[in-house]
Design a protein that fits this description.
- It is a single chain.
- The chain is 77% helix and 0% strand.
- With 218 residues, the chain is mainly α.
Length: 218
């Protein structure tokens, strides 16, 4: 395939994805709501315990990592199931060219953020910096799909990036966190504000937005 043919093929795929943008937005909302609620529950307990017990950690570092990996797994499986059901309803293949293009854009920042965050927890015992890396890389992953995804996803990506940067400066400039016996509470608070609250707001915004008429591909 020549460079021109490849460019035309990419344009065709992007156009097809933009025609289905409202479908993907609707499909992603339930998974965002479920993941957001689980994130709020998982983050509230360590923060509440630290406030009541003068910064004392309610779980170990590996438990923190395992908790968030389980939440990621549940939300991801739910998202895959919903996408598969929608593909079956439209009599289209689940792994389409559009999905491959989205994965090529989404995977690099997610892979880097995931590996660096796990390394920070396992080897450097820094939960807060790991949480901030996850937040920023997830936001960048959403922004990487801006050219072909519904506008709500890049907006969610910007919300993660901006909130992640603000939380980073708040954490870096506040030396009181060094006095805590564990940084479980700051890390949990950052995860709850972003993966919890932002996802719930996104899902509610999708649920209460006007329903768009489905565009049939030409």
């Amino acid at each position: 395939m020549s460079t021109t043919e490849a460019a035309l093929e990419n344009l065709r795929i992007i156009r097809s994805l933009m025609e289905k943008a409202h479908i993907y937005r609707a499909v992603s909302a339930p998974a965002a709501l479920v993941g957001g609620v689980m994130a709020l529950v998982a983050s509230a307990w360590p923060v509440q315990h630290a406030l009541a017990k003068n910064g004392e950690a309610v779980m170990c570092e590996k438990c923190f990592l395992a908790t968030w990996l389980v939440i990621l797994g549940i939300a991801s499986v739910l998202n895959v199931v919903l996408l598969a059901k929608e593909a079956a309803r439209r009599s289209q293949p689940f792994v389409s060219e559009g999905m491959r293009m989205a994965l090529r854009a989404f995977a690099p920042p997610m892979l880097v953020g995931g590996c660096v965050g796990i390394g920070l927890i396992v080897f450097l015992h820094n939960l807060t910096l790991a949480a901030l890396i996850w937040i920023l890389c997830y936001g960048l992953a959403l922004l990487s799909t801006a050219s072909f995804s519904p506008r709500s996803l890049p907006r969610l990506g910007w919300a993660f990036v901006i909130t992640g940067i603000l939380l980073f400066f708040a954490w870096a400039a506040n030396r009181d966190v060094d006095l805590l016996s564990s940084d479980l509470a700051p890390a949990s608070l950052a995860m709850g504000l972003t993966f919890g609250l932002l996802h719930v707001i996104y899902a509610l915004a999708v649920f209460f937005s006007p329903k768009l008429v489905e565009v049939q591909p030409k």
